[in-house]
Write a structure and sequence with these properties.
two-stranded antiparallel ribbon; eight-stranded mixed β-sheet; 429 residues; alpha/beta
């Protein structure tokens, strides 16, 4: 694939930020400037713990699905020489030259889903003294808005503490979507409220708010909520609310995206097209196999239904972005809280594994068409090129022209954007 690099010059502030990040990264120990120019990120979240051996890091196929450790499905070749994926990723396989499977992501948080999901969203373990921001909130804080009339950070999925803005404050929180057919109910004015009545309410609110804000001028929490309120009023306009009119898209494209998860991916494309910086699309359709990606016991037997749905939507999203010349501007990431061992439990499912699992990146102007890291024959340990969660976060930020070492502040306490993460240099031309 030939990558087209486009100038990241929507605003002078964004250009300055990108140049500052590149300058700082040039002084890292690698000595190379990392010229990330992506403007958006769509993160596909496979909540529950997706099995790397059954998707992007296939191994020996199990003989009995019980006592013989191995992948559940045969592997097929991809557009990356020497790299295979499972047979249920047949639409993605020929597009893997647009992708980078990172097969050596690892962490030691495996005991509990919420703790691991928090780590994979914030890049840090939970702390008793500070509430860290999610990666979506980091992008919202660090990247200049491209369009004030659409949200910086959108979440389609589980509104858990892992997705919160933490010490960055409410204005860098997410806009939560529960469906693809209409916008947030709180931003939709009831039909009975006329324009005149709405304006009178706004004037009354402004008088009350101005007095309250003046009385609490030194309270940051109040200032944060006022900023979030102002953002809500901006988002109630047609620029954002019209994003949900998916029926304006060609019928064959909507069909190509597939089921509800696919429609979420289509909505994500419409959001970044209008200027949203970070969109998380959660794949939490548990009814497909009974357990979602948490494939203990019988959930594992129908895991292929989830993989096929992911395959259809992800492949369509890549091609749709590419056709609209947005793929180089948009980093795609398929992530999960941990992986699965190739061994089976007593009922034929899989347990949890954080020692080695896969995250897939695509687009973003990166040097794609390569795989990062390898694992052993049982997909249990990283053999070479380990990638920590802070490294993964640093890579995402650097791809978007942001400085992964920038100091943010929790009150007066400086907190680096990542916990010492280093971008994966092989991904930057």
């Amino acid at each position: 694939m030939q990558h087209n690099r486009r100038d990241f010059l929507h605003t002078s502030a964004a250009a300055t930020s990108a140049l500052a990040a590149s300058s700082l990264l040039a002084n890292e120990s690698t000595g190379s400037a990392l010229q990330g120019k992506a403007e958006h990120c769509i993160m596909i979240w496979l909540g529950g713990g997706a099995s790397q051996a059954d998707m992007f890091d296939p191994k020996h196929v199990t003989e009995d699905g019980l006592k013989d450790p191995g992948s559940a499905y045969p592997a097929i070749d991809t557009a990356i020489s020497g790299v295979q994926v499972c047979e249920h990723l047949k639409h993605t396989a020929p597009l893997m030259d647009r992708c980078v499977p990172i097969r050596s992501v690892n962490h030691d948080v495996i005991d509990e889903h919420a703790a691991a999901a928090y780590f994979m969203h914030t890049g840090r373990p939970t702390s008793g003294t500070i509430v860290y921001p999610s990666i979506g909130s980091l992008v919202s804080k660090m990247a200049e808005p491209l369009n004030e009339l659409v949200p910086q950070y959108v979440l389609m999925g589980n509104p858990s503490p892992a997705r919160e803005p933490g010490f960055l404050g409410a204005q860098h929180g997410y806009i939560y979507l529960t469906e693809t057919k209409s916008g947030p109910k709180g931003l939709t004015r009831p039909a009975r409220i006329t324009d005149e009545r709405h304006q009178r309410r706004l004037e009354m609110l402004e008088k009350m708010r101005a007095k309250y804000v003046d009385e609490h001028a030194r309270e940051k929490l109040i200032q944060d909520y006022v900023a979030a309120m102002d953002q809500g009023f901006r988002l109630s306009g047609p620029e954002f609310m019209n994003v949900f009119e998916l029926d304006r898209e060609p019928a064959d494209l909507r069909e190509a995206y597939g089921d509800e998860f696919g429609q979420r991916c289509l909505l994500a494309r419409r959001l970044i097209e209008r200027g949203s910086r970070f969109v998380e699309v959660s794949f939490n359709l548990n009814f497909k196999n009974g357990t979602g990606w948490d494939t203990h016991r019988e959930g594992h037997q129908n895991q292929h239904l989830l993989i096929q749905s992911l395959d259809q939507a992800f492949a369509t999203l890549i091609q749709d972005l590419e056709e609209k010349r947005l793929l180089d501007k948009t980093l795609l990431m398929i992530s999960t809280e941990f992986g699965r061992p190739t061994s089976f439990d007593s009922l034929g499912g899989r347990g949890h594994q954080g020692t080695a699992f896969s995250v897939v990146l695509a687009g973003g102007g990166l040097k794609t068409g390569q795989a990062i890291g390898t694992t052993d024959e049982l997909c249990k340990q990283v053999v070479d090129r380990p990638v920590s969660v802070p490294d993964l976060f640093a890579t995402l930020l650097a791809t978007m022209g942001l400085n992964p070492h920038e100091e943010l502040y929790a009150g007066s306490r400086p907190v680096p954007a990542t916990d010492g993460g280093k971008p994966i240099q092989e991904l930057f031309a």
